[in-house]
Specification:
The structure holds two protein chains of two kinds. Chain A is an alpha/beta fold. Chain A folds into three domains: 5-184, NAD(P)-binding Rossmann-like Domain (Rossmann fold, 3-Layer(aba) Sandwich), CATH 3.40.50; 193-421, Orthogonal Bundle (N-(1-d-carboxylethyl)-l-norvaline Dehydrogenase, domain 2); 447-594 and 634-675, Alpha-Beta Complex (2-enoyl-CoA Hydratase, Chain A, domain 1). Chain A has 32 helices and 25 strands. In chain A, the strands form six sheets. Chain A has an eight-stranded mixed β-sheet with strand order 3-2-1-4-5-6-7-8. In chain B, the strands form two sheets. In chain B, strands 1, 2, 3, 4, 5, 8, 9, 10, 11 and 12 form a ten-stranded mixed β-sheet that branches. Chain B has a two-stranded antiparallel sheet with strand order 6-7. In chain B, a hairpin with a 2-residue loop joins β6 and β7 (197-199). The chains are: A alpha/beta, B alpha+beta.
Chain lengths: 774, 378
Amino acid sequence: MIARACVVGAGVMGSGIAAQIANAGVPVLLLDIVPKDAADRSAIAKGAIDKLLKADPAPLMSRSAAKLITPGNTEDDLGQLADVDWIVEAIIERADLKQDLYRKLEGRRKTGSIVSSNTSTIPLAQLTAGLPDSFARDFCITHFFNPPRYMRLLEVVGGPKTRADAIETIAAFGDVMLGKTIVRAKDTPGFVANRIGVYWMQAAVTAALDLGLTVEEADSIMGRPIGAPKTGIFGLLDLVGLDLMPHVDQSMAASLKPDDPYVKLRREWPLLTRMIAEGYTGRKGKGGFYRLNTEGGQRVKESIDLKTGAYAPSRDARLDSADAAKSGLKTLVSHQDKGGRYAWSVLSRLLCYAASLVPEIADDILAVDQAMKTGFNFKRGPFEMIDQMGATWFVERLRAEKMAIPPLLDGAAEAGGFYRVDDGRLNYLGTDGAYHPVRRPEGVLLLSDIKLGAKPILRNGSASLWDIGDGVACLEFHSKMNALDADSLALMKQALDHVGKNMKALVIHNEAENFSVGANVGLALFAANVGLWPMIDDLIGQGQAVMKAVKYAPFPVVAAPSGMALGGGCETVLHAGAVQAHAETYIGLVEVGVGVVPGWGGCKEMLVRNQPGPRDAKGPMPPVMQAFETISLAKVAKSAAEAKELKFLRPGDGITMNRDRLLADAKARALKLVAEGYRPPFPPELRLPGPAGRTGLNLAVHGFALQGKAKPHDVVVSDALAEVLSGGRTDHTETVTEDHVTKLERAAFMKLVKTDATLARMEHMLTTGKPLRN
Amino acid sequence: MSKAVIAGYVRSPFHFAGKGALTKVRPDDLAATVVKGLIQKTGVKPDDIEDLILGCAFPEGEQGLNVARLIGLIAGLPQSVAGATLNRFCGSSMQGIHMAAGAIAMGAGQAFICAGLESMTRVPMMGFNPMPNPALAEKMKGAYMSMGETAENVARKYQIGRKEQEEFAVRSHRLATAARQAGKFTNEIIPIEAGKEKVVSDGCIREETSLEALAGLKPAFDETGTVTAGTSSPLTDGASACLVTSEDYAKANGLKVLARIKSSAVVGCAPEIMGIGPVAATERALKRAGLTIKDIDIIELNEAFSSQAIACMRDLKIDLDKTNIDGGAIALGHPLGATGARITGKAAALLQRESKQFALATQCIGGGQGIATILEAA
């Protein structure tokens, strides 16, 4: 049980780790050295907390989480370690300094507390050498990835003396509280993700140089087409910093055996050395392989010529193989152009290397695939990539090209792949040559696992209903980007009917990147362009009816969003009887961006949720002003914690840190509500200001328009929103029902969707992905 | 008939709303401390006070109910001292002085506390429930127009350029800085307890401001306009109070008289250029006093915005050297309801300090009004 933690080393990684511990609601002490001649002896840690509050993307899930981080220094504050259960060391990568610190900790830290290092390059054996067993027993490596809030991988490495329960405690805390995917790595150089990832980067650079690709061409292949981050290789180097590479390379080379393929692959790269020397260290410096040239007043994106080192305006790569990748990895690597040859050159070496490293770096292929997916944001792990091409085909081609084939890969080719589904269960190929079922940690329930062994109860093109056991159903959206359309609504309605008759509770959840980006704007635009107004009006009416049915269902409906829940996706969450949200949920009503108002009860729900508590300002306007501000500015919460502040989530709604645990938590919540005798909420009555409120809000908008902060159509959309939120022609001596407000929403939506400026916004959003300011 | 006199003036330090040192201080507590300070400083017998008249532009929330009465109770005034809250927006507490003078003239009391108050932190401008009359808002845009927009209108109508506005603002900060450094505010400021801290000095004055710094600001209200945050008075927390008594009472009780109230006036004008309100009000008050602007030695012209202050000076042919010689609201701050008592009390105090004969205090008022007071050395 970890009730308090301490991070020593307040650099980017240390403070980021402290932030994530605070995000989990656990108090954490953040220590660094006392700077020379400093008036404030804890200035470094304090400065780090200030930076956490300003950094973008935000390391903290809410500003209040910063209050859980107590700054201090390693000279005055080690006494506080008596209360600390876990100490994370994240200081400079020097074994001697780390060991000095560990010696200082001994005798001061709580008995049985755990010490871990965030080292990425120093072996555990070296860190514990010469230290007493009492220390080694409590010591392990916890290797976070940057930035710690957003990168899901946490590699945990124990030594021969490490207590098993210490590893279990850290793994459990990292998984449940910090939301990390735990990969148990062995004490080998680079552990798992960096060992393979750094090889990938080196191979991607080397092959690009050898095959004579431009940086754009290389990146057009080495990104999305192979399932890597969209930056590709050179864009990624710019992002992480060019100066980091020589350090990583040298430390890998120094610690690997001389016959390791990495050591053979690496070579001098004078261009990189020169670029670093000249300050071209990437985005943090003057630029890198790409740069923005602002000379002459214009912003011109340029890229470097890998042969000459000269910059020239960047030119989009046009390789047929990049398009061919859409039909699969095999098509890509089989393509005859230089992009296809490049992909094959990198992947053939990378995947063989990965296959040669199990069980040296980790017990099984699962760990390797997990590590690459969560530590390098690969869409698929190396073994999943091989399976996608076909292990047999892959090995045959390797053999034809006379490349060495690692035994594990050979075995997979014979057996027919690294993974297979038996009796609806996913199995993986072990190093013993046999298939073993993939076991999920307790409390992890994945829809993808359920889907392997079952047929949906209901299904159409946009959504499905699954039985997830114990009388609970899961409604899954699966349209493109999970945009909601008539089919999504129809299936929601059917799901409610089905669960009402046959089951106990409903969870709304999916495993896509985003819960839902909102209603399908393309459909609305299409209908508007051909004047199908009744179709749009009908879609609003249907949506309102379904949302109302969700809210007043006689059984628990638990929304379990992760990623973006925008517009109609947000409205789905708002109407659920309970919410179990992933901590990384980004909720907002962004309809004004496409020139309309929330039409499926979003305006109404924000009014209901902003009704004043006993300590809030009274009168009809405060809830209206609050809802108006949130909706008219299209505010999007940048975490589930922030969603509570913005009232998209209620105080009692649950937050799950680990996405893999979300469905199980939501299901448990639904069953708990069933056990408690769930009753739907009582329909509220609202007291709204009427026309005077609309006038008041419009006065404020007029001021923003004068300032240039609101564009002409913002004024129109805001007025429609103001009319809805102020209750139309009501008076504050009267009360209105929820239906009264949703009727106003529908009328306002229809009024706006008939304006050219709204249609221009929709079109712009569909073509550029960005809101039009007109 | 006994003339009304100003026999004391104090104020709290003025601080930025939302971020200054007074954000956590309840407005009623703030004003009560100032009222207690006034009584202590003047030595007036509390039992003799007829009424506590308090001006406040947004009398709701913590400034709500009849906050003047509550402030009297918090300050420990005798229960016999009455209390009335009045609202003429920015002219509120100057209006309180006029009411007291009127009451004294009709023999309806001998001593009055005329206070003013605004916590723009704790009660927002427009209040908690802005519910304007839709029909009026439709018919007459100026009725609810934001003050910034009216300042732009005045700047356009009078063709007052940005540079001229900024020079005026820098002057205000320079004079306020000099006055503070010379200790000229010490006498008028009542320290305020804010939590564990004691606030003794103003918080809005920007000693280092310059034309260059102001030139870099974006227009605050109209992207095509000339008025910036630097040429507007800031949102401010503060309170002020004057002791107004009959001249006879002051003499009989040995009170130190700062000035005699010679005349006063209020007058309406077009709401969309409310900033020129002081022009008509001053002309009317001068006429009632039988004086011309040339006779006036000391002028306190409220600086709601540089643009309106400059426009008023132009129309009234006011001599800049006589005006706001310790700085004005652009530097000191403008807690709406508190400003009237501040500038009237300040004008009276300056008559004393500078040994001059006549003073003018005047200000513009949102919605389109002006208010003015002429003082004479006692």
